[in-house]
Amino acid sequence: MTRAYLRPLALALAVLAASPAGAQQAPPPESEVQSLYESALQSIAEGRKNDASATLMRVIEKEPLHAGAYLEVALIQCSLGRTDEAERLFAIVETRFNPPPGILALIAEARETGCDKWQGLSSSSVSFGRGYDRNVNQGANNPIFVNVDTLDRLLPEFLPKSDQYSVVTADHMRELAPGGTIGFAQFQGRRNDKLSEYDSATLYLGAEVPYRLGDWTVRATGLVGLVGLGGQFYQRQLQGQARVTPPLPLPAGMQFHLLASVTNTAYLTLANFNADTYELRGQFNYRKDDWYANATLGVQTDRARDMRPGGDRAGYAINLLARRKLGDALIGEIGASRQRWNGSEMYLPGLIDIVRDQRTDVLRAAWTYQLTKAQSVQLEARAIRNKETISFFAYDNRQVQLSWQLQMP
Predict the structure, then answer these.
(1) Which residues, if any, are the signal sequence (predicted)?
(2) What CATH number is given to the structural domain containing 384?
């Protein structure tokens, strides 16, 4: 859906650059006007068209010769089915700003398509990949289980097993209402060449609704997740999340979000493992030219619903991501994460008299090459180190995967 807005945004900037009227008569935009305009563009990118339209009208009130604001609000009104208002604004753009041919073509296309009804935007993608996994079963690093005063040798099935695999991923997203409400579906299926008992499939279905509370932006998300393992229905997840964006005075290109979520996880093939997880995260995003960076820090608590081994636990999570365009068609990406969980009780008193503490570190690198506008290939490498106080849970892993992706409108 985001890609669908790129052309109008780019052309709006072209109006500002190419229009003689804009260049000769419009004074340089003040910081307040520019801030409002950037807020409107962000609302467009997030699908909140009504919020974007209201903000753009405030831009026009403060700067009557802001060509980009006129064009954007005209396109929004057209996409919402408000034909008369869209035509009035199109006429202003045509007569007041002497737009270049590209803008005139865009306006003509909008008129030809028609503004009589709202049409929800959608986007889909599908990818196919082959990979190698050095530790499919998360087998223990140490073949000897150290339990307080005893030592036991693990059976072979609890040691690392490697395999090659095939994976297919599909995503679909669609606008459900003019105000920016979207629905989404994500599926991933993985099949190992030999270790079929570890084949997996996941399906997530959800919806996201935006709200505006003064200068604060809120996006509420609800989803259900279904997980299969080894041909059996393994896990069900229910999650509710709120993402709040406060109006902070941040440097250009930077955003801050506060995310709160609650997740209920039910295991259908295991007893006494159901739990509710609560999380609060702060997230910084930075975008400039060919750079994108993201940093997230969150605190978590995991409440056992039944008599789960180890009881409740608490922890934190850190995620770092950086992405950069390395050439005309090549994008490089690197990410790192750390997840820490600390248990509250002995794992299995009388059998495993150890409090389970866990630290999982993940390092990921990916290179994506754009073959065409809609097709790309990606090479991804991942290293995982999971340290545990209970030795047979500790494992290391390495994965490498080559994928082909098709993006559809």
Answers:
(1) 1-23
(2) 2.40.160.40
What tokens does 327 get? 């050439």
What domain range is 42 assigned to?
2-113
Distance CA 363, CA 336 (A): 5
Q: How many angstroms separate the Cα of 125 from the Cα of each of 17, 143, 406?
A: 34, 42, 6
pLDDT digits (tens, 9 = 90+) for 351-394: 898 999 999 999 999 999 999 989 999 999 999 999 999 999 99
Helices (H) and strands (E) in the chain, counts: 7, 16
Q: Do 293 and 173 sit in the same domain of this protein?
A: yes
Structure tokens at 113: 């398509």
Tell me the CATH number at 87.
Answer: 1.25.40
Question: 9: Cβ–Cβ under 8 A, 6 or more apart, which residues?
Answer: 41, 44, 72
Query: Which residue, 113, 142, 160, sits at the end of a domain?
Result: 113
Global pTM value = 0.77
Residue with tokens 């993940």: 362
Amino acid type, 219: R
